Amino acid sequence: MTATATKANKPVKFDKENVSTLSFSDQDVLIEKTDLGKRKIDLQRAQALGAQSKSNIKIYFSDAGGSQYIVEATVWAATERNVTLKGGVLIPNKAIYKIGFF
């Protein structure tokens, strides 16, 4: 399911295969140090879950225009700059504002 998201609405579910069609801002969506630290820890946890049990998680992120999306996927790798999902799909860490665990 692919849908158009707007800033005023809640995040829209988005297919991971279509993430490459989006553009991302050079600015981080998070400002607070505590939020940045939490994201880093959550991404490491998501990577560990992906490696151990291939569990899907929810990744909440924004594109360059500020539209918000949710992708449900397995995290294969989480580096300092990007998250790699199954199939080689990349999401820049700076675009991610929340990780949801089931």
Give the secondary structure arrangement, pairings included.
Blueprint (H helix, E strand, L loop, with lengths): L11 E2 L19 H21 L3 E6 L5 E6 L1 E4 L3 E4 L3 E4 L3 E5 L2
Parallel strand pairs: 1-3
Antiparallel strand pairs: 2-3, 2-7, 4-5, 5-6
Count of domain modules: 1
The number of helical elements comes to 1
**Average pLDDT across residues?**
91
- Total number of beta strands: 7
Query: Which fold does the CATH topology refer to?
Result: SH3 type barrels
Topology pattern, helix = H, strand = E: EHEEEEEE
For the record, give the distance between the C-alpha atoms at the N and C termini, rounded to a whole number: 20 Å
Structural class: alpha+beta
Tell me the overall shape.
globular
> Unreliable segments (pLDDT under 50, ≥5 consecutive)?
1-6
The main β sheet shows up as: 4 strands, mixed
Percent of residues in helical segments?
A: 10-25%
Radius of gyration: 13 Å
Detailed description of the structure:
The chain is of the alpha+beta class and 102 residues long. The protein has one domain (12-100): SH3 type barrels (Roll). 21% of the residues lie in helices and 30% in strands. The chain has one helix and seven strands; from the N terminus they run βαββββββ. The protein has one helix at 33-53; strands spanning 12-13, 57-62, 68-73, 75-78, 82-85, 89-92, 96-100. The chain has a four-stranded mixed sheet. Strands 4-5-6 form a three-stranded antiparallel sheet. Strand 4 (75-78) and strand 5 (82-85) form a beta hairpin. The longest helix has 21 residues, at 33-53. It is globular and about 35 Å long. The two termini are 20 Å apart.
